[in-house]
Amino acid sequence: MKLPKISIVTPSFNQGKFIEATILSVLEQNYPNLEYVIIDGGSTDNSADIISKYSDKLHYWVSEADKGMYDAISKGFEKTTGEIMLWINSDDLLSPDSLSIIAEIFSEHQGVDWITSLYSVWYDVEGRLIRTMYKDGFSKGGFMRGENLPRANQFSKYWIQQESTMWRRSLWEKAGAYLETEWSVAGDFDLWARFFQYSELMGVETLLGGGRRHSEQKSLLEVDSYYEETDITFKRLGIKYYSNWEAKILNYLLYLIPKRLKSVAFKLGFNDYRESLYHTGREEGWKRRRWK
User: Taking Cα atoms as reference points, which of 146, 141, 143, 158 lies closest to residue 242?
Assistant: First the structure.
């Protein structure tokens, strides 16, 4: 099997206590067709010294002032040419063997444009895996209803975890090949919304990557900004997710519908079919599974 080139970007700013573990989670997989780019925003701690230790294994790196995380990621992707793309922040970790798994999946399933793990993974400050949460799949319909924008009392389930999400460059280009560089925290959500205009998201039944929980974690500190930015995405696409009372009624109705009548919920657009990929443990490799 010809291994596809995988392009990974890590944006960094003053994450000296975490970034080496992030770098090693990528490089120690020894994936032979890798473009790894690190864009540091001119850190004032020891980040640049740590990155420079691995410069011979990096496709490109720089430490200079930028306009924020998404500007750094965008600059990084401009330096890449890989068929498969992802970014991992400088305090997060890729799961062992994830790059070979990603390569297999995209090589064997040409109709799959982007994937994410069905398991949200969280590490602590020391890099220990402290939590996993299973998710039952993803769909365009669910996303547009607000299913992947968890807020109290809404028709919501769970985030699409950015650290576990990878895509083909062809999908990136169809979706405009950009990130919202003026935003601070929800550029990933905006990108997912544009991806869903062209392709369904495939869940993968294994670990691919995870985020690190710590007191300076940006997504926790700026959660209000995240919701403000996601609201802009929905408005721009002409999407109105369910209000609190609509969500409560829908959830109640779905709970009451007997299994034999579930097809009615699908026809009415209250629920969706979801697909995932699982490994058979045999030579067949990764197979599709369809969920209701």
Answer: 146
